[in-house]
């Protein structure tokens, strides 16, 4: 009884201790801040850094690219070294076609030749060691196997030499990588600023005109694909994600006051003051959700104070902001854009691409990147360059009348816009000698000595394609000239199973298992019934 009381007391203490542990408040999770830079680098500074990169910046980019190339080469050299090493190992001590295997076969051949000589020449066993050595060493099969071993050795030596070269190459590459990584660590403040500007959503890669090569001897589709590849590099993705038409559509969507209140209930008010306007121009992304919020707040204000001018000014301010984003992107690669415009207009006019299909193709690439590179003049039926720094969409949308739309019409327009954007994005030895009778044993047995002397050739190589002597054939040449060859058939190799089963197979297995369970249950019930009947009969 005392033992039970003590056990219960200990159990209570243990449970209480666990309870106190679990009752403790969990520590707050460690949260990494999402804001890295509190002050943006100015637009002018970023333009200067991106458009006129310093030698140090270019050198740092070159170092990063070289490090990637050296690391890839190191990986390749490591794989090459492992492959050569595996070949050497197989050539030295593999189960077949190796140096150890060939030497073991030579010892067997020497024994067989020695026994055959003793069988064919009764005087052989009374000869001196040197005489026996000469006879055995000059036997055809021994010579063949020695030559074969020598071939293996030559091939093995070559592999070892190749491995040494790879080792030296790896050592050199590793040294180079260490030097590059040391240089990379010595980046300056200008490089840090360059990186920061590159991370801004409306920054893009700088391309010199020497990097732009357009092949004009091709079809319009292929030519526009070339244009597309360059525009993708120099027009920021954030800019492409919002179209001028999207801004117009969102401001044209008319909601009643209750719908506006519901839509804005969980949205913070976004104010485009001077600081926010500048930040959204290059350093912070303006997305469709932000624009929708701006449009809804502007519409709510319009409903309250009936000031249409303020509503229109809000719309025009967002259109201006979109154009400022283009101006920043264009400023980084002004020369590149001018070259692309000039080359495109020359190509279109010289090849007379003036039909509706060609116009639609050019329009589609304009819509994708939200910049009009060229215009088609209906009067002259010629293409002309967009000579302004403007996106080409600004004048079309800044003064565009905002007309009321029903929600159903707006949703329809939204669906059409999404499908159109999606379509635009797509433009892109087996046998041995007969047994020798025991009575051939003689006074001068120099077999072991001859084996040591004749099999002292070492060699190492990958010899898949080397000709292998046939022991049976070589030996039987002394008794008869018939040779035989054995062909080993390899079985079919199956692909490894991934362990997957089709749903029908799984269902069939489940049904089978259920059927077996029912069968066993039925048999067991019948057996019990039979036993009960037998017990009744016995009674």
Q: What can be said about this structure in brief?
A:
Residues 60-87, 149-183 form a coiled coil. This protein has 539 residues and is mostly helical. Helix content is 65%, strand content 1%.
List keywords for this structure.
2 strands, single chain, 539 residues, signal, membrane, 65% helix, LPXTG cell wall anchor domain-containing protein, elongated, disordered N terminus
SSE layout:
Elements: H1 2-23, H2 43-51, H3 55-93, H4 99-120, H5 129-137, H6 140-185, H7 189-199, H8 220-234, H9 237-241, H10 244-252, H11 257-264, H12 274-282, H13 288-305, H14 308-332, H15 334-350, H16 356-369, E1 374-377, E2 382-385, H17 394-398, H18 407-425, H19 447-454, H20 471-476, H21 503-538
Antiparallel strand pairs: 1-2
Helix pairs in contact: 3-6, 4-5, 4-6, 4-19, 5-19, 8-16, 10-13, 10-14, 10-18, 11-13, 12-14, 13-14
Explain how this protein is built.
Helix 3 (55-93) packs antiparallel against helix 6 (140-185), helix 4 packs across helix 19 (447-454) and helix 11 packs across helix 13 (288-305). This protein has a two-stranded antiparallel sheet. The protein is elongated, with a radius of gyration of 43 Å. Strand 1 and strand 2 (382-385) form a beta hairpin. Among the domains are: 51-199; 209-398, no CATH class. By secondary structure, it is mainly alpha-helical. The two termini are 51 Å apart. It has helices spanning 2-23, 43-51, 55-93, 99-120, 129-137, 140-185, 189-199, 220-234, 237-241, 244-252, 257-264, 274-282, 288-305, 308-332, 334-350, 356-369, 394-398, 407-425, 447-454, 471-476, 503-538, and strands at 374-377, 382-385. The chain has 21 helices and two strands. Mean pLDDT is 78; it is low at 1-6, 17-38, 404-411, 421-442, 457-464 and 477-501.
């Amino acid at each position: 009884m005392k033992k039970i009381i003590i056990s219960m007391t200990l159990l209570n203490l243990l449970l209480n201790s666990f309870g106190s542990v679990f009752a403790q408040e969990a520590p707050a999770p460690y949260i990494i801040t999402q804001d890295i830079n509190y002050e943006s680098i100015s637009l002018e500074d970023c333009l200067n850094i991106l458009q006129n990169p310093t030698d140090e910046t270019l050198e740092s980019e070159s170092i990063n690219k070289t490090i990637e190339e050296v690391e890839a080469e190191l990986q390749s050299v490591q794989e090459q070294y492992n492959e050569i090493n595996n070949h050497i190992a197989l050539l030295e001590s593999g189960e077949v076609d190796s140096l150890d295997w060939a030497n073991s076969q030579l010892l067997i051949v020497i024994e067989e030749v020695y026994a055959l000589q003793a069988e064919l020449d009764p005087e052989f066993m009374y000869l001196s060691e040197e005489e026996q050595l000469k006879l055995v060493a000059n036997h055809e099969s021994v010579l063949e196997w020695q030559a074969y071993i020598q071939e293996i050795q030559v091939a093995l030596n070559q592999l070892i030499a190749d491995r040494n070269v790879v080792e030296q190459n790896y050592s050199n590459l590793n040294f180079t990588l260490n030097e590059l990584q040391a240089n990379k660590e010595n980046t300056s403040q200008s490089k840090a600023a360059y990186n920061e500007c590159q991370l801004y959503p409306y920054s893009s890669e700088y391309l010199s005109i020497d990097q732009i090569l357009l092949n004009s001897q091709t079809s319009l589709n292929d030519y526009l694909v070339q244009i597309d590849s360059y525009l993708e590099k120099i027009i920021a993705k954030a800019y492409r994600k919002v179209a001028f038409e999207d801004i117009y559509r969102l401001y044209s969507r008319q909601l009643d006051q209750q719908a506006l209140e519901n839509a804005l209930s969980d949205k913070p008010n976004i104010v485009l003051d001077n600081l926010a306007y500048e930040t959204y121009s290059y350093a912070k992304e303006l997305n469709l959700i932000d624009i929708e919020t701006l449009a809804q707040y502007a519409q709510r204000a319009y409903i309250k104070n009936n000031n249409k001018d303020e509503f229109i000014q809000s719309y025009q301010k967002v259109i201006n902001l979109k154009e400022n984003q283009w101006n920043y992107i264009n400023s980084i690669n002004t020369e590149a854009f001018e070259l692309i415009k000039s080359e495109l207009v020359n190509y279109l006019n010289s090849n007379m691409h003036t039909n509706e299909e060609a116009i639609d193709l050019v329009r589609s690439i304009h819509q994708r990147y939200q910049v009009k590179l060229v215009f088609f003049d209906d009067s002259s039926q010629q293409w002309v360059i967009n000579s302004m720094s403007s996106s080409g969409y600004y004048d079309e949308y800044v003064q565009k009348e905002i007309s009321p739309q029903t929600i159903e019409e707006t949703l329809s327009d939204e669906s059409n816009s999404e499908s159109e954007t999606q379509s635009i994005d797509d433009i892109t030895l087996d046998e041995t000698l007969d047994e020798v009778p025991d009575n051939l044993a003689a006074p001068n047995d120099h077999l072991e000595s001859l084996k040591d002397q004749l099999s002292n050739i070492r060699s190492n190589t990958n010899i898949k394609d080397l000709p292998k002597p046939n022991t049976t054939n070589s030996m039987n040449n002394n008794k008869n000239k018939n040779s035989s060859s054995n062909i080993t058939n390899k079985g079919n190799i199956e692909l490894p199973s991934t362990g997957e089963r089709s749903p029908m197979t799984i269902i069939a297995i489940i049904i089978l298992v259920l059927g077996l369970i029912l069968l066993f249950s039925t048999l067991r019930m019948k057996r019990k019934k039979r036993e009960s009947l037998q017990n009744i009969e016995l009674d």
